[in-house]
Amino acid sequence: MLLCEIAQVSRAAYYKWLNRTVSVRDRENQTLLEDIRVLYDQVRGIYGYRRITMTINRRRREDNLPVYNEKRIHRLMRIHDIKSIIRQKRKGHKKSTPQHTAENLMNRDFSASRRDEKWCTDITEFKYGVGKKAYLSAIIDLYDGSIVSYRIGKSNNSILVFQTLIPAITQLPPGAIPMIHSDRGNQYTSRGFKTMIEDANLTHSMSRVGRCLDNAPIESFWGTLKSEMYYLRDFQAYEELKSYIEAYIYFYNNERFQKRLNGLSPIEFRTKAA
């Protein structure tokens, strides 16, 4: 009993532990913990307890099994130090001198009652290799949070924006005329962008100068993408970075379940609405 003396554990407490009976609850927690760790490894640690809960419960419903309480999963993850590895990074914003401007018609009302009613668009920057940069232009639908169109390129120019906008317009269902909101970057204040908007009968809304929250939905998506994918790796080649961005956007649209969408992915929610 030398170890008991060293650990300051009484003989009675030791034998009680030795002869203990594992409860049903403890066995369930052990099984649940194994499921949490498997899922955590599958998504490379980017999920927190809320999305872990949503994904595990979705799978259990498909197998007609009872679901788990979010607090229970949170408690197990906290005890075993399982937590999301993502971190947030703020994006710097520079003022631009616009050639053409539009009113802030969105006015931070990011609610949408149907698909293709309100879009937000923007460009974000990625670094790879030694001093090299890539750019992602995307359009997000505020109804379901899906990325309806995107383009990746090595130049931050109007062509990148046009290549993003054209497919989004082309796939619009009959009668859909979205409001598209952007910041005042020179790509969006150009005559070419204005012409494309007018030809498609879209309504253009613009953020106020220096107000990134006016375009919060797309800014939020950039933060999510970079936290869950980009910041976790050191990219050396453009094609590698491009491949990971494309894979993540597919994952985000089709497999990343969201609580606000009733546990569905954006594309699932969009398809059900249609």
Largest β-sheet summary = 5 strands, mixed
What is the tally of helical segments?
10
- Percent helix: 40-55%
Strand content: 5-15%
Distance between the termini: 70 Å
Shape: elongated
Q: What structural category arises from helix and sheet content?
A: alpha/beta
Low-confidence stretches: none
Please provide a written account of the structure.
The chain has helices at residues 2-7, 11-18, 24-42, 49-62, 70-79, 158-170, 191-199, 216-228, 238-254, 266-273, and strands at residues 118-128, 132-141, 147-153, 179-182, 203-206. Helices cover 43% and strands 13% of the residues. The chain is an alpha/beta fold and 274 residues long. The longest helix is centred in the N-terminal third of the chain and has 19 residues, at 24-42. It has a five-stranded mixed beta sheet, sandwiched between helices. Strand 2 (132-141) and strand 3 form a beta hairpin. The mean pLDDT is 89.
Main traits of this protein?
274 residues; alpha/beta; elongated
What's the gist of this structure?
With 274 residues, the protein is of the alpha/beta class.
Layout of helices and strands:
Layout: H1 2-7, H2 11-18, H3 24-42, H4 49-62, H5 70-79, E1 118-128, E2 132-141, E3 147-153, H6 158-170, E4 179-182, H7 191-199, E5 203-206, H8 216-228, H9 238-254, H10 266-273
Parallel strand pairs: 1-4, 4-5
Antiparallel strand pairs: 1-2, 2-3
Helix pairs in contact: 4-5
